[in-house]
Amino acid sequence: xxxxxxxxxxxxxxxxxxxxxYYAIFELDIGSVHSPGSxxxxxxxxxxxxxxxxxxVALSFIKGTEDCPLWGKxxxxxxxxxxxxxxxxxxxxxxxxxxxxxxxxxIAWGVIVEHDRPLRIAIVTIAxxxxxxxxFEKLLRVPLPNGILPW
Amino acid sequence: MMETFAGLVQGFQVALSGTNLLYGFIGCFLGxxxxxxxxxxxxxxxxxxxPAMYAMESPATSLxxxxxxxxxxxxxxxxxxxxxxLPGEAASVVTAIDGNEMAKKGRGGAALAIAAIxxxxxxxxxxxxxxxxxxxxxxxxxxxxxxxYFSLILLGLLLAVFLAGSSPLRGLIMxxxxxxxxxxxxxxxxxxxxxxxxxxxxxxxxDFVTIAMGMFGLSEILLTLEEAVNSExxxxxxxxxxxxxxxxxARGAIARxxxxxxxxxxxxxxxxxxxxxxxYSVERKLxxxxxxxxxxxxxxxxxxxxxxxxxxxSSFIPLLTLGIPCNASIAMIYAALxxxxxxxxxxxxxxxxxxFWGVVASMYVGNIILVILNLPLVSLWVKLLKVxxxxxxxxxxxxTTIGSYSLENSMFGVNCFFVFGIIGYxxxxxxxxxxxxxxxxxxxxxxxxxxRQALMLSGGSFSIFVTRPISAAILFIFVVVLIxxxxxxxxxxxxxxxxxx
Lengths: 151, 501
Fold this sequence. Notes:
The complex is a heterodimer of chains A (about 150) and B (about 500).
Chain A (H helix, E strand, L loop, with lengths): L1 E2 H23 L13 H24 L1 E2 L10 H20 L1 H16 L4 H22 L12
Parallel strand pairs in A: 1-2
Helix pairs in contact in A: 1-2, 3-4, 4-5
Chain B lengths: L1 H14 L2 H19 L5 H8 L9 H26 L8 H12 L3 H34 L4 H19 L3 H16 L1 E2 L6 E2 L5 H4 L4 H19 L17 H23 L4 H16 L12 H16 L1 H7 L5 H12 L8 H4 L1 H22 L3 H7 L4 H20 L2 H19 L4 H24 L6 H4 L1 H32 L1
Antiparallel strand pairs in B: 1-2
Helix pairs in contact in B: 1-17, 2-4, 2-17, 3-4, 3-10, 3-15, 4-5, 4-6, 4-13, 4-15, 4-17, 5-6, 5-13, 6-11, 6-13, 6-14, 6-17, 7-8, 7-21, 7-23, 8-21, 10-19, 10-20, 10-21, 11-12, 11-13, 12-13, 15-21, 19-20
């Protein structure tokens, strides 16, 4: 049975497929079967997404749908908080540099996502950011973003 | 035959060199660890380690390392399945049924031993098959040109969708989405930009590594955050050696599982998960006491564990001989080889015999390492389960974030990793498996270039795909599989409708 959520995803895929078909026809050169252009394969791909998602949506109307929520009660909270913390980390990396942003990220993860004990957060933050810095900077020699600190 | 033995000798020289032996050991160790840890499968781990491939000097070393992770995870997956009833990876799901029942009866040690020994025997059978079947298949595949390759890639992708996923329709949508993502950037044949919107970053297209790390790595972490892993329910290991009766019950199941796994692994989309399911149902059908299944049947552990290990070895055959990855983990190993400047396919054996035979020989060595790692050290692995995800999760996020940054020393890779991670999370929540997307993304350029070349060769006639015998045979298999699947889907829906009415 197709779920309501899958049907909604199908509608989004239909829109995507329609846009890709439009893009292939009007923005790219389709060429011909003898000499396929840059849009030829794109057109096939867009048509594939459009047709298949239309079938998915049509089947959901023919066979009916069941409501199957993506999350149980409160299940979405931790992933949502984690996404927010990771987003903040990505924004901060080029501004604060690797060490400061990683320390801030580990504190935020411990406090906001895991609700951990302060002592463990402190240990994980210090040991985690230092060991990651040694791993990337010294062992793997990966150039890390500096930000406001010289290292 | 003599060539195979000569190749194996060369392979052992490569595999037993200090560096390769060390990386093989680290790979097996990491593989066992990720197999044990719920919420971190082999695909996710290989994706996390892909940036490290840029730093590795030899393609043989990187392949030995990643292969170790892949087949090592099959060994490790059984430990949590048996002791916790919590499969560390998908191929060990069925092992959890009877393995955990054995553990509850105080036979956890015997179940672990049977799983490890079965895995060793089956893994070795898989590698022997790879050693002897690989070279003739590669020799045959040299005759392939663009129409045959197009048909073969098409068959591989569609089999992956039809056999591995729960819904072929959703799998096909993901497949086309993967092809679409690969379209972003410069068209290699005409030099035209596609979906770049004037962005310099998009002109290079998306990096496979960021998509893989996001869709498998980050999404896996987000999914794991939803579940609470309770490590206090670990069953007791008990005596580690099986008794005579258990051996007797395991022998046949190991042999059958090895054969089933070997053939299932070669089929694109088959692989470890399917092979373990098939083996379980075969053992149940053949058993004199089918009611025992679900209540601690030895064959219910021995068969599936042997099958998934044989499959993990034999799934290297299509990769190394045809250049077709048959599941998401193997697709990532394919990408790792491309990073190293080696294109997997029929020419691999002649152009890079050290890589081909090196990885084959490393699997023989790896199987021995894994038995040692998994049997005497099992209590050590159980302790690993006590590492809280609150520590493991953020560390993985840091490694993947910096891994995506290191690809081009820019935040574009990090942004892509983050976006694809969230998209992958929703895909998986909605039952859209990202595996076909990833395989299509990797194979898309080959699919497109071979199709366009074939059409140019034929003067625009699609008949070229059916008039050439090999291509026609491949497409025939494709049609048979397609019709078979459609018929089975119709039957299933009729049965459901009948049951409802």
